[in-house]
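Dear Dr. L.,

I hope this message finds you well. Following up on our conversation about the binding site, I have prepared a predicted three-dimensional model of the protein together with manganese (II) ion. For your records, I am including the exact sequence and ligand specification that went into the calculation, followed by the structure tokens. Please feel free to forward this to your student if that is useful.
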Amino acid sequence: MQYVFDPPPRTALPVTGSEAFFPVHRIYCVGRNYVEHAREMGDDPSREPPFFFSKPADAAICAPEIRYPPATADLHHEVELVVALRTGGQDIPVNQALSHVFAYAVGVDLTRRDLQSAAKAQRRPWDTSKGFDQSAPCSKLVPVGVCGHPFQNLISLDVNGVRRQAGCIHEMIWSVAEVISILSSLYTLQPGDLIFTGTPSGVGAVQSGDRLEARVEGLAELTFSLV
Ligand code: MN
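The resulting structure of the complex is given below.
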């Protein structure tokens, strides 16, 4: 195909043990998926259906430095287990959902909390609070063949060496398989889709100059500085 100008390069993430990169298609995010985080955001943590939002594919980045974004004085960290799909589809049954997973990673759903709070108050969309440039830092992807499917792993985030967030994957209100299945009833999932599966409690603000260490024990680590 001939384009009227050169399109931007496709966003891609590195894969552990491979020279080849994972081409990112879309980034889906679960709004709240841990009981204690739902409570700290003032929500009822009952098992009502999950809600979703998305970030543009080019928000994903695996790099040692992330730019502190403009237009916020309250940038928050949300450490999350990230699911990377190798195949997709519609109406995927829960018991087949994990077969679509290519890899897992740990990521940070960076959030301009001040803009999100204003959007919530005015019943406006979340896009500017969630979908900005470099808003989805992500570790190298670890293929399922290497790490298996995480069910009991600890998930944590440290800022400048101080523990801010800690939880366990089994505390997720909706499991990875359930999230994939429900998402596939709303969208046709595609190879290259990433799913940020929600954050445990302890979200908070970070500043320019801070060093963030996100971890899913036994699976993946991501360290970056805000510049
Ligand atoms: Mn999140």
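In brief: The longest strand covers residues 101-108.

With kind regards,
A. P.
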